[in-house]
């Protein structure tokens, strides 16, 4: 298909020859255009076409001779590759220059003595170089030039990322007591652009304060600071608080540091009997198991109702070598640490049958004025300095065993009552039914009117009743 300008020229040529009319452009039909006028128009249009063609060729040549580059981002210490391309080099060479306009490479020739800068590829249409061990000073605009008429250039912006240093945690004092507030500070330097900090306590995210950003002395990197506050509990003991820095230069990795918390909290205790089912005549060991931070090291053993302590030392075990019924009672263990004291109780009841221990522990705060009178002076001074004493009960007897004992006592009482009733009944019966004895003395005295007659009758009756007689000389 012919170009529109060429078509117009052909049309005008035909008109100049007188073989056509212009019936579609407003010229009356049958009216011809003078030959001189048509020839002149044809010449002007030809010149315009030639100029347009020359201009289009020049624009096409300029586009093909224009070098192209791309911006690059590199992490400090890494390697960046700069590539310059051109479609029509026009027998000219490509050149790379740094931000200070120092020539790095002209074609394949090195111009700057810097071993970090190496030639990657050099052809008439491409020049590629690399810069290794990049530093922050290497950041800026690099220029690719081609020495045609005129000289054409292209810019490539190199951005260098500053890697943040490992974060550091400040402000933590070992140890910290429960219910107190922990205040921690995390700081990281050397990032470009400014990094972001985040907190975690164990597996839980902590909300830190506003991020503080300050410029480093080199004028290129930044230092970021974050603060966090939270109230600690005994569950926070040995839990790690972690500060992590996030930055695009870390490339899907992270840098973090952790601080393990050490929390002091009040002690708790229980008494463990060995054997668990003590019997009369056996040896019983009561072990006072104490927990806390720090772990209690001082133990005081007493027996309820006694003013004399059973044991005052660091031994948490109380030994009863030969159990008897006199050992029955409530044994008390007081465990003490710098965070306070705890009191735990154990009820021991020695019977002919084994104990049925079902430990039941509860805690109640003791009076704040100090321990009972049964404690020693040292313990009283300690208790007044520490927090209120906690009282626990480690009795081995359950409510079911108490009911069982009461039932046995009731049965025994009924049996005793029945035996006593039976004895009273037998005594009364024997008293009312005494034995009668039959004698043959004084026969016939029952019918005598008086005593003398009775005697005479008795004597007569006895004489007549006997076949033998006695004679006295």
Please, could you describe this protein's structure?
- This protein has 473 residues and is an alpha+beta fold.
- It is built from five helices and 29 strands.
- The strands form seven sheets. Strands 1-9-8-3-4-5 form a six-stranded mixed beta sheet, with no helix packed on it. Strands 22-21-24-25-28-27 form a six-stranded mixed beta sheet, covered by helices on one side. Strands 10-12-16-15 form a four-stranded antiparallel beta sheet, with no helix packed on it.
- Strand 24 (329-337) and strand 25 form a beta hairpin.
- The chain is rod-shaped and about 195 Å long.
- The chain starts with a helix and ends in an 8-residue tail after the last helix.
- Residues 1-39, 51-60, 353-400 and 461-467 have low confidence and may be disordered.
